[in-house]
Design goal:
By secondary structure, the protein is mainly β. The chain is built from no helices and 27 strands. A hairpin with a 2-residue loop joins strand 26 and strand 27.
């Protein structure tokens, strides 16, 4: 086992192709790709201050480590990595990587993170400025995750979100299979062009949310300010607590709510008989 303790590294590829190493209280600065093509790394109490520190790596464990602003695009083409108790000030981390586990981490500039990655587990983490996170990702599980950033999960599949807050405009677009539980979502056009979305015990703020979806389930959810909802959405199973501002041209399914300000059904576009709408216990009839 190689051990590097209390050292500073600079220059390109300072520890290139390092295997089975413990790295503790080390600083990596002024040079790209410090640990490229490495494996079997245990990194603790360290800092990365320049670009591309962990590319093409495998079997990496990181704890209590800082990724500075210029360590952008830091972890690409890397598999089997676990990071805990760490802070990221850099954008574009994680591309085409897999089997990623993150716990108790802060992402302070999270734009374009997690693109084309798969098998991601995130717990007790926060992300700021996180536009376009999880683009085209597969097998993503989030628990107690707080996101501030727009357009999350575009093109992603097999997503589980629990106990979280997602402040993200236009989230869950072009998604296949998502289950969201006990979560607050603040957005606008949520869920468009997706298939098999399920929301349970969620508080959702949206504008024209839940349109152009095949297979939508809402159970015990609140829809704040949601207008023109369910447009050209099919196979709906929605139980909404409270008010829906407006429902527009659903294709098929069942919608139940306590109140609705307006129902719009255009017979030239949809067959109203294919969607059952129940408002305050009474079936809506066109």
């Amino acid at each position: 086992m190689n051990k590097f303790t209390n050292q500073a590294f600079e220059g390109e590829r300072a520890l290139y192709n390092t295997h089975d190493a413990e790295i503790d209280h080390c600083r990596f600065h002024d040079g790209e790709s410090h640990l490229k093509e490495s494996s079997g790394l245990a990194i603790t109490n360290s800092s990365f201050e320049w670009k591309y520190p962990l590319w093409y790596c495998d079997q990496v464990v990181v704890d209590n480590t800082f990724f500075a602003l210029m360590s952008r695009s830091g972890i690409w083409y890397t598999d089997n990595i676990t990071i805990k108790n760490s802070v990221f000030d850099c954008p574009k981390t994680f591309r085409r990587s897999s089997f990623i586990t993150l716990e108790n981490c802060k992402f302070n500039s999270a734009g374009e993170m997690f693109w084309n990655c798969h098998d991601i587990m995130i717990k007790d983490c926060t992300a700021k400025d996180g536009d376009y996170m999880f683009f085209n990702c597969n097998n993503v599980e989030l628990d107690n995750f707080h996101l501030d950033g727009n357009y999350a999960f575009d093109g992603a599949s097999n997503i589980i979100v629990k106990n979280s807050v997602l402040n993200s405009k236009d989230s869950f677009w072009n998604v296949h299979n998502a289950e969201v539980v006990d979560t607050k979502i603040i957005g606008e056009y949520i869920g468009w062009n997706s298939e098999n979305l399920s929301f349970t015990n969620c508080d959702i703020e949206s504008e024209q949310g839940f349109c152009y979806i095949k297979g939508l389930k809402l159970k015990n959810c609140r829809l704040k300010g949601t207008n023109l909802s369910f447009e050209l959405c099919e196979d709906i199973d929605a139980e909404v607590v409270g008010n829906i501002v407006s429902i527009k041209n659903p294709i098929s399914g069942r919608i139940v709510c306590d109140s609705c300000d307006e129902v719009i059904l255009d017979k030239d576009l949809v067959d109203p008989t294919k969607t059952e709408i129940i408002i305050a216990g009474e079936r809506y009839e066109i």
